[in-house]
Write a structure and sequence with these properties.
Bound molecules: zinc ion
Number of strands: 17
CATH architecture of the largest domain: 2-Layer Sandwich
Order of helices and strands: HHHHHEEEEEEEEEEHEHEHEEEHEEHH
Strand order of the largest sheet: 3-4-8-7-6-5
Shape: elongated
Structural class: alpha+beta
């Protein structure tokens, strides 16, 4: 697209965003939610090729969304549970430490140079936190610094190490701590190898436990075993946002296009309502913290499963309500839950649930600009108002595990 056209289209889209949203609303809900099922916004976006002109932004995993409560589970990029451990748990783990390990890890001690048992370790493998087991460093990043302490040019995952200014002994240094148990590890300096990161992570052997590459890591040193769920409940912006920001135990949520007849669909194709895809979300979750049943409770709370091929102002088969089961167990559980709601929930006494429950076949990630859309653009999507019915416990904070 010519540069002038891009500027004009950006201005027009900006102006459209300022128009009262009620103007774009159709159907039986005169509420301020954006309609994406057609109309002016989509038409102009199509004229100017908006699908490809909007810049992409790096994704933020759900578990690290800024507005999540501090006591919710937190996961690293590598998929480890890095929720800070409570003091009582740290003290319990510390019972297994030697006096030297305790001095270093809990009291920010430093072992004498050239004395640590991991300094000259020639083996390939992973160095984990001696206290809580979180993987910290890998032999691939170890180098001989000549200082007398094990040295690495980076951590295995930036999320696994925490940094703190240390003004002890008349110096200003950067202390490194385990992100999960807050155990003292050592310091990081900027005189590392220039050909790589330039960083020198200077470690105490006493802070770490080494596992060779072929060793089986203990459970506490492995990524959490996650599960996947897929839900379609109208505009995927809103469904994605809700699961990302309101549900503890969710690691990540991606907006996409589910099932359908064509490969690698684009938004403009799905918008036509003829490709058979549903706008849906793929949720990666920690079953130890939140169950599939609890996810379904949220799903049936944040959309109206009685609306056929629509959700509020958005109309078309791409906005249908569906649970796409990842396996037979989910399929059975979803069918049982719909039956349970039908027979017991006053919301559905006179309005039958039309949600499709079927196996997932294919999920295509939507274009980058659809991801985290609500958070980045501060836009709400249609959410039904259920009166006289208690919200699911997982949404009220009562379900945080
Ligand atoms: Zn630790």
């Amino acid at each position: 697209m010519p540069r002038d056209a891009m500027v004009i289209s950006a201005v027009i889209l900006g102006l459209i965003a300022m128009v009262p949203l009620a103007a774009a609303v159709g159907g039986n809900n005169a509420s301020p939610f954006t309609s994406r099922s057609g109309g002016l916004v989509q038409t102009i976006a199509t004229w100017f090729g908006a699908d490809t002109m909007i810049e992409s932004t790096p994704r933020v995993p759900a578990s690290r969304a800024a507005d999540r409560p501090a006591d919710w589970p937190l996961y690293s990029k590598a998929g480890h549970d890095i929720t800070p451990l409570p003091d009582a748990k740290v003290q319990e783990l510390a019972l297994s430490l030697t006096p030297e390990q305790r001095r270093v890890l809990l009291n920010a001690g430093t072992e004498p140079a050239f004395c640590g048992d991991l300094l000259d370790n020639p083996e390939h493998g992973t160095y984990c936190c001696r206290l809580c087991g979180l993987p910290l460093f890998n032999s691939r990043h170890k180098f001989d610094s000549g200082t007398g302490w094990p040295s690495f040019d980076r951590s295995v995952d930036p999320d696994h190490v925490r940094y703190k200014e240390d003004r002890a002994h008349g110096m200003v240094r950067t202390e490194i701590l385990c992100a999960r148990c807050n155990g003292h590890l050592g310091h990081v300096f900027t005189d590392g190898p220039r050909q790589t990161t330039g960083q020198r992570y200077c470690l105490n052997s006493a802070s770490m436990q080494f596992f060779t590459e072929d060793a089986e890591m203990p459970e506490r040193s492995r990524p959490v075993e996650t599960a996947t769920a897929y839900f379609a409940g109208g505009c995927f912006w809103g469904v994605e946002h809700y699961f990302e920001h309101k549900v503890p135990g969710v690691l990540d949520v991606v907006s996409g296009y589910q099932n359908g007849h064509t490969d690698n669909p684009m938004y403009k194709q799905v918008c036509t309502g003829t490709t058979g895809h549903a706008e849906s979300v793929r949720i990666t979750y920690d079953p130890a913290r939140v169950s599939f049943r609890e996810l379904m409770e949220v799903f049936f709370w944040i959309h109206d499963p009685t609306q056929l091929n629509r959700q509020g102002p958005d109309v078309g088969t791409q906005y249908r309500s569906a649970v796409f089961a990842a396996d037979e167990a989910q399929l059975e559980e979803a069918r049982r839950y719909v039956k349970f709601l039908t027979e017991n929930d006053p919301r559905f006494k006179d309005r039958p649930i039309v949600t499709q429950v079927e196996m997932t076949e294919r999920f295509w990630e939507a274009e980058e600009y659809h991801q985290d859309y609500s958070a980045r653009h501060n836009k709400a999507c249609y959410i039904p108002e259920w009166r006289g019915v208690e919200p699911p416990a997982i949404l009220t904070g009562a379900g945080v595990k």
